[in-house]
Specification:
heterodimer; A: alpha+beta; Nuclear Transport Factor 2, Chain: A; 2 domains; 4 helices; B: Nuclear Transport Factor 2, Chain: A; 7 strands; 40% helix
């Protein structure tokens, strides 16, 4: 009788050990297949994007096209209506032209911000005020990407 | 006694089998979710969209969008919701679309979120029987739905230049 109980206990232990080993192995396998990536903090990303949008507004007021162009990735493009994509050094010229054409003030209103560490998508409204109080409200869709650890505008579409 | 042993062996093997299958499934699901989509896969939505417009089929165009997707058309307010998007593209079809084509410039994804940037060409029938050609660029924000298909959540585009008649 004692032998029988001992044998049953052995079988039960074997069973439990096997189940535990498989579970651990399974857990490990799932962890291994997950991509290795930095932890992403959307709130932090949002604060950064908001700060860049505030800087844009300030730099327009100051007429600082160099500072405005510095927010773009090296391979960025501005996609405006009735215009070919504006790339490279032409981004600086485009902001210079906007300032010379009389743009006094720009404000941004983010509607949505989604994404991860790889890229962010921002949609919103841009309100432009020119000399003589001519106010234009447009829509924008921006793809942000990280370059040298900092979020930069990669595709800036406005219409 | 023998029957109890058999029953125990059966439960043991059955539990093992279930564990192994669920483990395998979890691993496959995790791999699928973490895989980046190819440029080809991310460009499919707009290739299907161009086909739908060429076929003058606004319903086929609308199902390529998420139920709560938004269009950001040039010089017009934002259009939100699949039904409104269908009506918008029906309007474009009624305006005399002849055909549409697209070319992907860049596309990327992370998890179930992606984007595609491209160029489009649309040809319209002009009022005087002429053909109006519109060439432009677009940004499409995509999400992978429960069936694994990439559908649009935001679509924005604009012409490169004023429309030219052929």
């Amino acid at each position: 009788m004692k032998k029988l109980i001992q044998s049953k206990l052995k079988v039960c232990s074997l069973f439990l050990i096997t189940v535990i080993l498989i579970s651990i192995g399974c857990q490990q396998q799932t962890t291994d297949t997950k991509p290795v990536s930095e932890e992403f903090d959307m709130q932090e990303a949002k604060s950064f994007i908001d700060s860049i949008n505030t800087k844009f507004s300030e730099q327009i007021k100051n007429g600082d096209s160099m500072a405005l162009a510095s927010h773009y990735a090296t391979d960025a493009a501005i996609l405006l209506s009735k215009s070919e994509p504006i790339k490279g050094k032409d981004i600086l010229s485009a902001w210079g032209s906007m300032i010379r054409a009389g743009t006094e003030e720009i404000t941004f209103q983010t509607i949505d911000l989604i994404g991860s560490n790889d890229f962010l998508i921002e949609t919103g409204y841009i309100v432009t005020k020119e000399y003589g109080n001519n106010i234009t409200k447009s829509k924008y869709l921006v793809v942000w990407k990280k370059q040298n650890g900092e979020w930069k505008l990669y595709r800036d579409m406005i219409n | 006694m023998n029957q109890a042993k058999k029953m125990f062996t059966f439960i043991f093997l059955f539990t093992l089998l279930i564990l192994i299958i669920s483990c395998k499934q979890e691993s496959v699901d995790s791999e699928t979710a973490s895989q980046s989509a190819t440029v080809e896969e991310l460009g499919q939505m707009n290739r299907d969209f161009a086909k739908a417009l060429t076929a003058k089929d606004a319903v086929a165009a609308a199902i390529l969008y998420d139920e709560n997707a938004s269009l950001l058309p040039p010089n017009e307010p934002i259009v939100t919701g699949r039904a409104n998007i269908q009506a918008y593209w029906q309007g474009a079809i009624d305006a005399g679309i002849i055909d549409a084509s697209v070319k992907t410039i860049d596309a990327k994804s992370n998890g179930d979120l992606g984007y595609e940037i491209g160029m489009f060409t649309m040809r319209f029938q002009g009022a005087k029987g002429d053909t109006i050609v519109e060439v432009g660029k677009y940004t499409e924000i995509l999400k992978r739905n429960s069936e694994g298909k990439w559908i649009s959540t935001y679509g924005m585009w604009s012409s490169n230049e004023p429309m030219a008649a052929q």
